[in-house]
């Protein structure tokens, strides 16, 4: 099973244009080509970057946000309503007036309650100010030559 999967994955038709193959990438005449096995080094590097970012966000960005007065805003959670949740996920996050009227009839809620539910549900999906701060501080700390982020 593994050998057939490997044979399919490394098939020349999948990786090369017509007329080229793995034999064309063999080292010869003093030319050394990259090998497919060299790509494995990218995985530990990617994991290392993820770990470094998590450590930075927890140990540097979060305390810095607290010093600068950036706070986590408490958002109101919506009540569980399968009809509204299904409409929100499958149809649209911003219903039209006719959709709101239809949802009012289906759920037995008032128009204002349905509008409030959708507004709160949209706000739940928005990232918090603290999360935005942490992401922005992680990306601006990687600027070359210490340049400010806004030129």
TrEMBL record:
Listed GO CC annotations: endoplasmic reticulum membrane; nucleus
Pfam families registered for this protein in UniProt: Homeodomain
Entry superkingdom: Eukaryota
Key word Glycoprotein present: no
A GO term for molecular function: DNA binding
Principal localisation: membrane
Pathway(s) per entry: Lipid metabolism; sphingolipid metabolism; Sphingolipid metabolism
Topology versus the membrane: Multi-pass membrane protein
Gene Ontology BP, a term: ceramide biosynthetic process
The reaction(s) this protein catalyses: sphinganine + octadecanoyl-CoA = N-(octadecanoyl)-sphinganine + CoA + H(+)
Cellular compartments annotated: Endomembrane system; Endoplasmic reticulum membrane; Nucleus
Domain Homeobox: 67-128
PROSITE patterns the record matches: HOMEOBOX_2
Keyword line: DNA-binding, Homeobox, Lipid biosynthesis, Lipid metabolism, Nucleus
Stated name of the protein: Homeobox domain-containing protein
Species this chain originates from: Coregonus suidteri
Upper taxonomic lineage: Eukaryota, Metazoa, Chordata, Craniata, Vertebrata
